[in-house]
Design a protein that fits this description.
The complex is a heterodimer of chains A (about 475) and B (about 100). Chain A has about 475 residues and is an alpha/beta fold. Chain A is built from 15 helices and eleven strands. Chain A has an eleven-stranded mixed sheet, sandwiched between helices. In chain A, helix 2 runs antiparallel to helix 3 (about 45-60), helix 9 (about 300-315) crosses helix 11 (about 350-365) and helix 9 (about 300-315) packs across helix 12. The mean pLDDT of chain A is about 95. With about 100 residues, chain B is mostly helical. Chain B has a domain at about 5-45. Helices cover about 35% and strands about 5% of the residues of chain B. A two-stranded antiparallel sheet of chain B has the order 1-2. In chain B, strand 1 (about 85) and strand 2 (about 90) form a beta hairpin. The chains are: A alpha/beta (about 475), B mainly alpha (about 100). The interface between A and B is large, with 76 and 53 residues.
């Protein structure tokens, strides 16, 4: 049982003076302190949080309107720039980087009265599926400390399930919000590409990076999404928000056409996960949905496409960390070239180096056409298959990941095996379509999420479907 | 696709401006070879008649006014994150020997 009321109710009680923002912030900070052994959090932003809470409480006393998220504490993945807070992306490279400006989505949340209380752990630069690639420490699964919480946004996901705050922000490049949400058992939302601004978020792969939302319920997530979604001149990839907004959802599933993705239900899938997905499909049918099997033949190739395109973009985005502009620098170097290569060679962890070198390889002359260009063209084939599927179906469903949460160390010595944790989430990322993980059951007592996917810009419909699923699968 | 050689790895590290240790060379040689073998499966896919996708929501050039806006920061705040400065300039090591 959560200590937090639904977000809309919390904000209403702060606005009426029944609860104070400072009380909520203190409750959040206390829970973070009590559950420190899970290593979900890199740093708290207590001073600024208390100051903001006091200002909100004063505004309420003065009869001012403090916003739709008045006094609601939240936790941001440590790749979001938050004023005055160290923003490390869990990397040695950015240790000591005090954000000189703030992400657009943090601005939007603050403008409605929400309060950032802490920065959560992740795989360094968001490269990974377990938080084991964090340069600092590995976050423990809230239900089993020997297991990972998933990744890369594992700290944010664990923080929500550990009840540290009513919601948390992650990022999702190839599954980094949906997969940890499935592993720990909360809502994890990846919107249509461009729905929210990435300005002020440490870039990983710009053609798929999106803001991810973790919450306990679909309604809580939807309210936060509604506050954050807008075009932003500072991120030219942003798109117009849905005119109907993202709240007051219709949770009617009756008559909806739902495709269960054949390619994800076959070999290599954990038996318990398969059972959970099949049971969900049966419940949707019983509730009046038309559930049918659908094949997307190119989908099994999505992971190979992803692990060409994403390292290519990573190698480009991480070129800015050169030992001259951000805090980490090797001061022993005698000239500039040596300063570049030794700062990067010692400042980056193993996974960042692997991705930079793969990216460098697939973009290098002689290999560009065979790898990068080919991957971008297979991406078109995949997008066409999704588009064709959504011409006759409202939603696709399937697992989020092939297994429930794995053990710490189980995949960490084999990078390719770790990549396979993303096999079911990378397709929607490459196509820029929205996708959500909704808690749907358990396998061996570990949470399992159902992935629900919709056509591009159908975020509002997807959230409604997720709300229906939440009711049927609870 | 043939496995990468030690020289391939050293060349990649050089292109990517990364130092790597002797032990790392063999580790990356094996890991990068595995990853490249895996992604090479795309080379068999028939993509005739298809164009590469570079932007998924169909946006083309997005223009805005080039205006100074206040986002609560300052040149000094930006310079504070730089490892080495002198007289409000970023200082780097010498470029030629």
């Amino acid at each position: 049982m959560s200590q937090w009321l639904p977000i809309a109710e919390l904000a209403a009680k702060v606005k009426s003076g029944e609860l104070s923002a400072l009380q909520l912030v203190e409750r959040s900070l206390q829970t973070i302190a009590e559950k420190k052994e899970y290593d979900a959090i890199i740093a708290v932003t207590a001073e600024r949080a208390r100051e903001r809470a006091t200002n909100i409480d004063t505004a309420v006393k003065n009869g001012e309107q403090p916003g739709r998220l008045a006094g609601v504490p939240f936790i941001a993945k440590d790749n979001y720039l938050v004023f005055g807070a160290e923003t490390t992306a869990a990397s040695n490279m950015l240790r000591g980087f005090i954000a000189p400006y703030q992400s657009t989505v943090i601005e939007k949340l603050e403008a409605e009265g929400a309060i950032c209380v802490a920065k959560a752990n992740l795989d360094a630069f968001a490269h990974g599926a377990s938080t084991e690639n964090s340069d600092f420490f590995t976050t423990k699964h809230p239900l089993d400390k020997e297991r990972v919480p998933g990744g890369s946004s594992g700290g944010s996901a664990a923080a929500v399930v550990l009840d540290m705050a009513p919601f948390a922000l992650g990022t999702d490049t190839g599954g980094s919000t949906r997969q940890p949400a499935s592993f720990v058992g909360c809502i994890g939302y990846k919107p249509t590409y461009g729905t929210m601004s990435r300005f002020g978020i440490v870039a990983m792969a710009s053609s798929t990076d999106v803001v991810g939302t973790f919450a306990r319920t679909v309604d809580d997530a939807a309210l936060v999404i509604d506050v954050m979604s807008a075009r932003d001149p500072l991120d030219s990839t942003t798109i117009d928000r849905d005119e109907a907004g993202y709240i007051d959802l219709s949770a009617d599933i009756s008559g909806k056409k739902i495709g269960i993705v054949k390619e994800w239900m076959s070999s290599g899938l954990d038996g318990g996960v398969k059972q959970v997905i099949e049971t969900a499909a049966e419940k949707f049918k019983a509730a009046g949905a038309d559930v049918q099997e659908i094949s997307l033949p190119t989908l099994p190739l999505a992971l190979a496409v992803y692990y060409i395109i994403v390292p290519a973009e990573v190698s480009s985005n991480l070129s800015r960390y050169d030992g001259q502009r951000y805090p980490y620098s090797n001061s022993e170097a005698v000239d500039l070239d040596e300063s570049y290569i030794t700062s990067r060679g010692t400042g980056f962890g193993a996974e960042a180096k692997r991705r930079i070198m793969i990216g460098t390889y697939v973009l290098s002359s002689g290999y560009y056409d065979a790898y990068y260009n080919k991957a971008q063209t297979v991406r078109t084939k995949l997008i066409n298959e999704f588009r064709a599927a959504f011409e006759r179906l409202d939603f696709l469903i399937g697992p989020v990941a092939p297994t429930p949460a794995f053990k710490i160390g189980e995949n960490s010595n084999d990078p390719l095996r770790m990549y396979l944790a993303d096999v079911m989430t990378v397709g929607p990322s490459l196509a820029g379509i929205p996708s959500i993980s909704v808690p749907a059951g358990t396998s061996n007592s570990l949470p399992v999420g159902l992935q629900i996917i919709a056509a591009q810009r159908q975020d509002r419909a997807l959230l409604g479907m997720a709300k229906a699923a939440e009711g049927l699968l609870a | 696709m043939a496995d990468l050689t030690r020289d391939d790895v050293l060349k990649l590290a050089r292109l990517a401006r990364l130092t790597i240790t002797d032990e790392e060379i063999e580790q990356y040689r094996k890991e990068l070879s595995d990853i490249l073998q895996y992604v090479a499966q795309l080379q068999q896919v028939d993509v005739s008649g298809l164009q590469p996708t570079t932007q998924v929501t169909g946006l083309t050039n997005v223009m805005r006014e080039d205006e100074v806006i206040d986002y609560g920061s300052s040149p000094d705040a930006l310079l504070r994150i730089v490892p080495n400065t002198q007289d409000r300039l970023i200082k780097v090591k010498r470029m030629i020997g």
